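Anyone up for a design puzzle?
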């Protein structure tokens, strides 16, 4: 028979998870937390289930406190430098990583797990079209926000097979100035984040 220490009461679980007693009751009723009742009608929750939920909460808090990460992919060093300057001036809290071609960018995406990708379409080797197509075949990565910086017309983009509807297209060079605001909108960054981070 399991020891009493293997289980939390609802009150102990609430204290451990930093939530109200009512939240614990709702989680038990909805099945989020498994529980059984004693002969006296008191709920008991397996300690392992509570600790696992506590660990998930800690991970979620760590993820939410992590600064948004953006990967910039362009074979032109001047453009990479320009993107970094423009973004950092308005969004200093954002973490920027750079890659100089599509293949390097693809490897970095797997390593860094970014919140957003900003890339050029015309690059040697793996260009932006192929990179976006490759990401579209991977369930998790196809959901990452993507901003394309290009000088191509809509007709030229269509001639290359087009782009997914979710991809945001900004035109070079004017679109560079719109990049920070576009990032704010896509990442849903709170207004004044740049001031808070300064």
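Challenge accepted. My sequence:
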């Amino acid at each position: 028979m399991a020891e009493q220490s293997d289980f939390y009461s609802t009150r102990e679980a609430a204290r451990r998870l930093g939530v109200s007693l009512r939240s614990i009751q709702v989680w038990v009723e909805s099945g989020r937390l498994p529980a059984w009742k004693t002969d006296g009608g008191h709920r008991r929750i397996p300690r392992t289930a509570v600790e696992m939920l506590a660990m998930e909460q800690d991970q979620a808090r760590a993820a939410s406190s992590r600064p948004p990460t953006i990967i910039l992919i362009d074979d032109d060093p001047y453009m990479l430098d320009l993107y970094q300057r423009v973004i950092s001036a308005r969004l200093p809290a954002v973490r920027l990583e750079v890659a100089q071609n599509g293949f390097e960018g693809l490897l970095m995406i797997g390593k860094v797990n970014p919140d957003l990708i900003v890339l050029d379409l015309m690059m040697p080797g793996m260009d932006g079209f192929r990179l976006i197509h490759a990401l579209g075949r991977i369930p998790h990565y196809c959901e990452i926000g993507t901003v394309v910086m290009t000088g191509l017309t809509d007709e030229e983009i269509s001639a290359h097979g087009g782009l997914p509807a979710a991809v945001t297209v900004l035109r070079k060079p004017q679109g560079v100035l719109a990049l920070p605001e576009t990032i704010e909108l896509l990442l849903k960054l709170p207004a004044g984040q740049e001031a808070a981070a300064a």
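A detail worth pointing out: The radius of gyration is 24 Å.
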